[in-house]
Amino acid sequence: MKYSIFSLARAALSGHKNWQRTWRDATPKDRYDVVIIGGGGHGLATAWFLASEYGIKNVAVLEKGWIGSGNAGRNTTIIRSNYGLPGNTGFYELSMKLWERMEQDLNYNAMVSQRGVINLYHSDAQRDAYARRGNTMRINGIDAELLDLAAVRKMIPFLNFDNARFPVQGGLLQRRGGTARHDAVVWGYAHAASALGVDIIQNCEVTGFVRDANGKVTGVETSRGKIGAGKVGMAVAGSSSRVAAMAGLRLPIESHVLQAFVSEAIKPLIPGVITFGAGHFYVSQSDKGGLVFGGDIDGYNSYAQRGNMPVMEDVCEGGMALMPMIGRVRLLRQWGGIMDMSMDGSPIIDKTPVDGLYINAGWCYGGFKATPGSGFVFAHLLARDVLHEEAARFRLDRFRTGAMIDEKGQGAQPNLH
Amino acid sequence: MAEFSWAPRSSLEKALVAGAHGTRGIEAGISLTEIRNFDLIQVMARRGQAAELAKVAKARFGVAAPNAPKAIQTSDATLIWSGPDQFFVLSKGGKHTMQTLATSLSGPASLSDQSHARVLISISDAKARAMLAKLSSIDLHPDAFAVGAAAATSMDHTSVTLWRGGDRDGLAVFNLLVFATFAESLWHMILDSAAEYGVDIGHSKEF
Amino acid sequence: MRIVCPFCGERELGEFTYLGDAKPVRPEAGASEDEVFDYVYLRDNVAGETSEYWYHGGGCRTWLKVTRNTLTHEISSVEPAAGAGAAKVGA
Amino acid sequence: MAGAQTHRLGNAGLIDRSAPLNFRFDGKAFSGFQGDTLASALIANGVKLVGRSFKYHRPRGILTSGSEEPNALVELRTGARREPNTKATTAELYEGLEAASQNRWPSLRHDVMSVNQLFAPIFVAGFYYKTFMWPAKFWEAIYEPAIRRAAGLGRAAGIADPDHYDKAWAHCDVLIAGSGPAGLAAALSAGRSGARVILCEEDFTLGGRLLSDGGTIDGLPAAAWLSKTLDELAAMPDVRIIPRTTLFGVYDGGTYGAIERVNDHLPSPPEHQVRQRLWRIVARRCVVAAGAIERPIVFAGNDTPGVMMASAMRTYVARYAATPAKRIALFTNNEDGWRTVETALGAGLQIAAVIDARPDVSPAHRSLASKSGFPVLHGSVSGVDGGKDGVRKIAVSLTGGARAEVEADGLAVSGGWNPAVGLTSYHRGRPTWRDDIAAFVPDGAPPGMVAAGAANGDFGLGACLSQGFAAGAAAARDAGHNGKAGIAPVADDEVFSLTPLWHVAGKGKAFVDYQHDVTASDIELAQREGFESVEHLKRYTTLGMATDQGKTSNVAGLAIMAAVSGRSIPETGTTIYRPPYVPVAIGAFAGHHRDETFHATRLTPSHHWAVEQGAVFVDTGLWKRAQWYPRAGEKDWLESVTREVKAVRGGVGFCDVSTLGKIDVHGSDAGAFLDRVYINTFSNLAVGKARYGLMLREDGIVYDDGTTSRLAEDHYFLTTTTAKAGLVMQHLEFCRQVLFPELDVQLTSVSDQWAQFSIAGPKTRDLLKEIVDPAEDLSNEGFPFMGAREVTLRGGLKARLFRISFSGEMAFEISVPARFGDAMARNLMLAGAPFGVTPYGTEALGVMRVEKGHIAGPELSGTTTAADLGLGKMMSTKKDYIGRVMAGREALVAPDRQVVVGIKPTDKARRLRSGAHIIPKGQTPGPGNDQGYVTSVCFSPTSDQWIGLALVERGRERIGEIVHAHDPLRGEDYDVELCNPVFYDPDGGRQRG
What we know:
Low-confidence stretches of chain D: none
Strand content of chain A: 25-35%
Largest sheet of chain D: 7 strands, mixed
Largest sheet of chain A: 8 strands, mixed
Oligomer: heterotetramer
Shape of chain A: globular
CATH topology of the largest domain in chain D: FAD/NAD(P)-binding domain
Number of domains of chain A: 2
Distance between the termini of chain A: 44 Å
């Protein structure tokens, strides 16, 4: 059923008794052309693009729990394409353009809201680094503005301009950046992919790979039986190392916990996404009214999906340093996700050394904004066996050759990215 | 020729204002005293020389140097554990300087002068523990941190050395070595934490 | 999280800095690019008990080898890391 | 004058009638007493309508008496202290309190947005995912602003919080959450055993349900037992009870978070005191005695003001002597609900009827009913007639199908009790289902934690006491304390007979989640659309996501989901429990770390002297560094900086460079050690000499640079950049301890020990001769370039002198022990006065380093190789060192890498800016020809134009080429020439002279 205000009004007349499942509750078939491991945003987007762009509809998405139960459902919902290095810039802009048409593509309101993303700077050196980044964006056709102090004051007057330890000097603004409703992205892709014939199979955990005599992957073993596959793509974020290990692969990835926080709902207070430049704090306000905020990863390997107090304090300290008006707003809930932190802070989308197995991983704490782009280029790779031109540098062997994409310049230590 | 004055100046020279601070009209719950102008030498065993160092140190100081987080009072110095196979020698009046220690210790140990790298603050009175609980994550309960206990630890994300000296008037005395360039900043944090209890501030040339 | 420093006793997480997996051993001089690549970049990234380097920088400045479960954060042992990453010459 | 407390009982209660308090709600004056909450005081004044719901703006009244309250949320206080979403049920009344209802306009009684109720047929769960998509541009412009305005609850102050917060640590053997019978019994046994105990109580009065439900313990009335117990605990020196404190989270290693509302019960905190304190409690064991939360039953009209939880109703009557209603009906499915009847009757209130969903009622209650003259109806409440002024009539579906009506002005509801399973589930343990109480009980609690009493699903007073006592004793024993705990307090256990009832089908909206307006039909819709997983249910309907985190709604919601999806409740499962247990002010997590004390500040030894000189300071990491020293009449920073540079280049100047990291490297293998961490060799450095060194990360990228001097055979003095000082120390310790344990090396940071000054300019020697003992030979022969040794100053002070130059001038760096740093600055001014000595700041330092083509932070970006920086030749081929192998990877030695070059504008008047990109001349900028960027720029007084450094593809091969600087961010485009990065004195004659 097509979703619209008219269908809603019609449904209201019948007490909403006629709505169908948002996606079909599929049971696994014996074989698919493509099996995607991971029913998060990336996996579901990949399936949808396979079906809609590349005409490959005999596709299954296997999800260990409920769809969107990983990082897709535990992030701070920010979308942006303000990256500074070749390889990242074009890719994230591709993703941004796909965000901008997502709702019409999917017939699902994911509440993509381009209210702007500003990264504040507090020193000349930081300004220069943002100038470099912003110019990269502009050269790549992406909107970027470098704001001075007066402009920032006008735009977000409630920051601490008067007695700050690290006074704000300005900011790099991407007006097209913003937020999207994370769960709705998952449900929207599931809804649209399912409508095109993709099987979404929940509560189906992959426990191993089926290999032929040459070592080629020809299917997966799952908690719901063996499923054959022409190709297998993994999009399992924090579980990448675990799944890759089933195929005998070691990855340049560590799994880390990133915490995020939401406050009680309050009336509109914060316009877009604001990122503090002198501490670990970024914040936006959800449509429901909660301040959604976060900061740095905890810094140690973890699969626990929860973190500790030092980071919670660090983040709130950043918040109080930047906008002391939030002192009496209450933190309502904290949670943690498993980040697949790569060795250069940038993602990996590539074939693996194992024939038939494709990898989509290493998104660090930035996977949400990549969702549509990741799905698009991963679908391209699975369909055509070549990397999409906007993902050409996300090769797995770049660590071996030295062609890293290291935005933060921290080197082979994942917890510093 | 210009007349040069080489007056030493503590990092707290400006920030420390002697007298009362914080809540008035109650007996001060915190006493803060900065001890100025001391000698502090870091003694580190050379590789494989820890036993030898222990031997010569015992000969030099008359008591065994600490090999666990303790502060040991000798007749004219305090030996404070600062890490495995290393300790500080804290003294006054030039009794234990780089020069005087080198003669006895420099075989099995490397020495590094830290006399100017730290500020020494003594914290005491009835609310000392309550105030320190705002700055220190370690357990300072009398059973857990007895007289002579020491810790290499952090306050306000800054490394410090903390040890418990002899009690004064039946109340615990905590000594704190703070990095000199952080001292003014941490001092303000201490004052903020102590203000509610009422503070008596001073400085001294003696321990 | 609390880590029992073998020298200082139990201390708060904030006194420590994490580095990473303590399993890889630095290849000796003359090792190939492939060997060093493996050491620098590839990780088992275990979901479960693993040994890792932590630095007690906010305390006694000792590098520690901590055995910790990445699923539960429970720590089962802590020891000095002295020599843990040294090339196994002649091995 | 405040109105009369029309709904206050004449006696009883735990309020202090000798301490009347005035307060205002929505501008109207009222009065209450010390010991009231805002909610109890409003009830005492007959106020029923206190808020509006989130989506439909339905009128709402007070539902509970605790922190689980979903409805009675107010904006407390005014101005900068305004606190949105404050629960009236936990806010302590104080003199002058001001509160306002929220989420309504123009007033609580006449809320325009209640028109939303008309659209309720469309505003079902998730309706917004299905619409507002066309046209795409309308989302940000029209739909979303409207949604945002309508959503949200209270208004934040919008200006800086004027109050202070702090954070503290506490340590104990046994931590106890809750001071009800179970918690107090645990404190008694643990305390008597000799354990260090901390007990946190959320309420401002200790006692938990004893305060409302009374009872008999050890033969004493509850109040007497409570008072005796508190006296005993107070006498134990290692038992600490912290009221107004909620244990909100449990973290790793037995670390717990608690929030103490130190002064929230006052209009504002007294001077020098904090508003709230965040506690980080380290405990060996924890006993959760946080009780249980009574749950509503979902029926049409269950959100009408005047419908209240049965336990809350009797709390208001018994504890606060306030009467929510005069004629009360009870709807219960369990025995415990009947206590409200007993309390109400005892207070002289009328009972209209008891509607009991169970097939049977105990004979005792049956006789109470007949004695007191109220009917007992077997059945369920199917509707409520009432509105914003409260309940008028209650519709009842009797077992068997008949209908009845009850006239009442208050309806007490009890659907049973849910143990407070939050804390025990925060390490992702999933609670288990117990059929006998139809509730989840703790399971999989974090290590060291147990639940006791009602929190463990055992609701009887006797069970609470015995379980709490046993848990406290066991916890103390586990923590190593075996003292005599004595005998547990004894009380009888009440019967808790319950017939599960979650949802009464009927016409009209039946609310599951009051605050988020989630109804039973929303849950049915979610199931129909496939959102069957409880996490999907929560996310789709927003069930349990409000400020109460579903404390009253979650279990009912999943029970309804279980019913419609044909699964059992335990099969349906719970969502993940997440801290904090109650919302906590963000300010409390920050404590002192806000505003100027956000981070520590490091001051150089000459800081206060520089302040006297009028320096402008810049933040460099945690440091405050003098950036330049403006003089009267100078119009801008550029003029000051240019003067400083010229003064150095033409005479002499000095700069405090104490911020550099300084490390003593001792030991017989110190040289061998440095050979392994630097790309170049230090073991062959002569004593008395300094050398520039570059270190890589293990991935082959440049990590840091600095000069290292050899002061003795076994003693090097290493310097790092300011930015990397701590990290390099950590890295070197890793190398020393972990990688190269066989080497005899000792490392000590001496960054704070030495005050270090750079003295630069052709007249440097003249100045030094004034201050250094005349016996010291400072001539080129006696102290050549890159020399390093100890010297004596006039007056006898020892200093270290290094003949190194960052500025490219004849220069020395001089170090004195830090307490002499202030004197050093003053003495340099004195000694240099005849030569026009000029103090200079980091800006002039930066200008001179760019003029000399020295790399610094912008070039050490963490992505550049030694060769990129023009330092490839330093890489020794004769030894192994950190990063050597990875530095050889193909992409890191590729010929088309971006490398450091100089740039100067072809138009000499043109200003340069860092961050501009380099594009080949004549080409349209695009991703394909973006060949690099400008890293550092300055106005060079020496060249009399702007100059800069840039990282440019194949830059060194292109010296002399004119390229295009493209800076669309700042709307600038201009030509620059690629040139040798050493603009000044390229052959280095001046620094050697």
